[in-house]
Amino acid sequence: MSRPDAASLLSPSPPPFKPHRRGRLLPSILAVLAAAAALFLLAVLRSPPTPSPNLGSLFLSLGSNNTAASHLRALTLHPHVAGTKANSLTAAYVLHAFSSLSIPSHITPYSVLLSYPVHRSLSLSAGPGRAAKSFSLTQDTYPSDPYARAAAEVTPTFFAYSASGSVSAEAVYANYGREEDFAYLSSRGVDVAGRVALARYGRIHCEDIVHNARAAGAAAALVYPDPLEYGGSAGEGSFPDSRWLPPSGVQVGSLFRGVGDPTTPMWASSEGCERVSVEDAMATDDMPGIPALPVSARDAAEIQQVLGGAEAPADWQGRDGSPVYRLGPGPAVLNLTYQGNDTMATIENVFAVIEGAEEPDRYVILGNHRDAWTFGAADPNSGTAAMIELAQRFSMLQKQGWRPRRTIIFCSWDAEEYGLTGSTEWVEENREMLSTRAVAYLNIDVSVVGPVLLPSTTPQLDELLLETIKLVQDPDNSSQTVYDSWVKANASPKIQRLGNGGSDYAAFVQHVGIPSTNLIFGEGPGYPVYHSLYDDFVWVEKFADPGFRRHVLLASGELWL
Ligand SMILES: *[C@@H]1O[C@H](CO)[C@@H](O)[C@H](O)[C@H]1NC(C)=O
Ligand SMILES: *[C@@H]1O[C@H](CO)[C@@H](O)[C@H](O)[C@H]1NC(C)=O
Ligand SMILES: *[C@@H]1O[C@H](CO)[C@@H](O)[C@H](O)[C@H]1NC(C)=O
Ligand SMILES: *[C@@H]1O[C@H](CO)[C@@H](O)[C@H](O)[C@H]1NC(C)=O
């Protein structure tokens, strides 16, 4: 996931959310981890490193695409939303993986406010009193789907922290749900007040779409992934035949605009701590305050077919060949009912620590979240699998007498999807220790959604990053480095600033000011099956990193050992 930050310290004018461009989503999940590992090593060892052929070739020989693949498969057998038994099992898996490498590891739990669906329904009619069509609100499996059975365990599609309630009102089409889209509707005399706003993903995050809808007076909101951004071109088909989102695909998300546990804003959810009541936490302006649901492109298309009113402008339309979108309001009437359970639940961060030899009280921290809306193969367990693989290599090097200069802390965060919750609570609890001891925080979340490195850093790490990617071989072309392909792909290559939304680096950067990085290979911040049922092992194996071969890139870490 990625979400807007509350207060960016480092990015006064954040780069805009880029739409996905069609046809270039060529994921290579583990390549980024190569770069991350490289960065990590450089940061740990402080460049320039002294080559040591023995350890170097050992590190090289340890590269195995199969290890990361088998961790990924094990972690993604079942959907594992934060706070559930299934996600607790993934914590146990990661803990066991670290401890079986003889790396001291432990779990730190927190009790935090999470949110689950209890009841949802949505129906559409062509006007008051007309027959209504009820939507199933389910994502289709396919005939040979090895995860069809596990799909039954997936949490029904919902928006975390949505208000509960029932709304029956005319629909209005609100494009990307940005402030300017609602301003445009107003300028066309289309009143959103009391109505159900139908908006599409592609420019801003769901929590901002719903916030804007509410600000415009909407009584409820629906958000869907339009085939323009998520469906490829009409002939390309969808998963499992191609990487694109199937028509029934739904993008789940959290509507909380803050970070961390909503009952402990800016302080840690430690045992027995003071808390805001759940009712008060749910009543703040960071919460959506209206009922909202994510829906599929297929359901949205049915709604659009019944919408009347003026034709929407060209840049509000769908992909070539799709029916004309109209603004409404009505005559389409939507009846949306949502009942959620906003409840305290236990989350678990897993830590593993390799003590440094020379500066044991200086920490280089590598983090990746573990919880997922569904199976979480790309988001985030490709990162988890590689983190374990990396720990395994370090462990083997340790057996050869190697020790890092500084202490390395591996973190497997929980409840990132709800609001960066696990990492934020930990940073809040350890703020002083981190501000004096942390050297850098290296984050991985969604690792790879395309062919080009999209690095984000705080400024202190720019140089290190550039030096690093000059040493890493491009997974798609062995005659060039990642740096070369990055330069080629960008007219004016520029490292983005962290701070425009986030992942688990947010608390490190924004609360404590620790130099941080976040690495993604891609072209934009999303990928077609993001937060849907289809982010599973098959998708990663087929479309993200076939053969898991790019992970062997990690071997280029030889250079720094
Ligand atoms: C809306 O749907 C709910 C739940 O299915 C139902 O109880 C209610 O009567 C419906 N409201 C209208 C106005 O149709
Ligand atoms: C909400 O969750 C709590 C804790 O898991 C559970 O005890 C309660 O029964 C749930 N409420 C509903 C309405 O599902
Ligand atoms: C691979 O990289 C080399 C060196 O930059 C370049 O000349 C060549 O065109 C690239 N090949 C492909 C297929 O992009
Ligand atoms: C690892 O690479 C080998 C050799 O390229 C390949 O045969 C194998 O299928 C790969 N493993 C996975 C899990 O993709």
Notable features of this structure?
carboxypeptidase activity; zinc; disordered N terminus; 18 helices; 17 strands; 561 residues; binds 2-acetamido-2-deoxy-beta-D-glucopyranose; metalloprotease; disordered C terminus; Aminopeptidase; 13-stranded mixed β-sheet; Glucose Oxidase, domain 1; metal-binding; two-stranded parallel sheet; alpha/beta
Structure in words:
- With 561 residues, this protein is of the alpha/beta class.
- It folds into 2 domains: 29-112 and 344-559, Aminopeptidase (3-Layer(aba) Sandwich); 115-343, 3-Layer(bba) Sandwich (Glucose Oxidase, domain 1).
- Helices cover 30% and strands 21% of the residues.
- The chain has 18 helices and 17 strands.
- The strands form 3 sheets. Strands 1, 2, 4, 5, 6, 8, 9, 10, 11, 12, 13, 16 and 17 form a 13-stranded mixed sheet that branches.
- α1 (29-45) packs across α15 (462-469) and α13 packs parallel to α17.
- The protein is globular.
- The structure holds 2-acetamido-2-deoxy-beta-D-glucopyranose (4 copies).
- Residues 168-251 form the PA domain.
- This is Glutamate carboxypeptidase 2.
- Keywords: Carboxypeptidase, Glycoprotein, Hydrolase, Membrane, Metal-binding, Metalloprotease, Protease, Signal-anchor, Transmembrane, Transmembrane helix, Zinc.
- Pfam families: PA, Peptidase_M28.
